[in-house]
């Protein structure tokens, strides 16, 4: 019996048979080979399934599952992580990967190396090249909280400066992600889980372009349609930072998910401060427009 993989990549697929082949090629040609790929399809089509089947026939590291009913983005991202944990419970590291982006062959090797060198880091991610609708390209120079030992300082930095859409595709310590709560039913759930993760350890960026990201912006109405399989809950009409603070309070202060690293009393303070710092950030953004 072969040893379990150290890394699991989870692909929450959704209706991209036009791009999934190039994505699979970039993942399966990684120079770091000790990984499994779990594909969970929330919009099963014969085209995408047939393409993935070609690769699963040749590479036993890949598994493919199709949801019998649409779960929405929040549900499918959560299920992808849950299936990765169920299939490979001993895997140390996890990353979500899209069904339409492209990764440099050294992407995984560089991120695993950074996490090995810095055991306190919970998320490692690279610089990215954004492929925009008008075919322009922008290198994202990103955000890094390395060297911040205090959970409060890391949370403040994340609330003020991080770009969640880039960090959410980073390589994460699986146990830390599980403690942070994966995807919660809120608007911009990627930002929410990353704020929770920032309390558990630093985020570090590899200063090299290793990810080529198909980039598009989404308004809140489109988000609500995409995130949920049917009508979005009424509370999602509240400002996103209110939802995030409430979820942080519930998960860490009430349920104690952050213990022993984050106690319940400290979690109350963090939830309040996250609300404050996120409010300040939004006010500054409005003034800049």
Features of the shown structure:
single chain; 289 residues; alpha/beta; Spore Coat Polysaccharide Biosynthesis Protein SpsA, Chain A; nine-stranded mixed sheet; 11 helices; 9 strands; 18% strand
Account of the 3D structure:
The chain is an alpha/beta fold and 289 residues long. It has one domain: Spore Coat Polysaccharide Biosynthesis Protein SpsA, Chain A (Alpha-Beta Complex). Helices cover 44% and strands 18% of the residues. It contains eleven helices and nine strands. Strands 1, 2, 3, 4, 5, 6, 7, 8 and 9 form a nine-stranded mixed beta sheet that branches. A hairpin with a 5-residue loop joins β6 and β7 (137-140). The N and C termini lie far apart (58 Å). The mean pLDDT is 91.
Question: SSE layout and pairings?
Answer:
Elements: E1 7-13, H1 20-28, E2 35-41, H2 46-56, E3 62-66, H3 72-87, E4 93-96, E5 102-103, H4 107-117, E6 123-131, E7 137-140, H5 151-161, H6 164-167, E8 171-173, H7 174-180, H8 189-198, E9 203-214, H9 220-227, H10 240-254, H11 264-288
Parallel strand pairs: 1-2, 1-4, 2-3, 6-9
Antiparallel strand pairs: 4-8, 5-9, 6-7, 6-8
Helix pairs in contact: 5-8, 5-11, 7-8, 8-10, 10-11
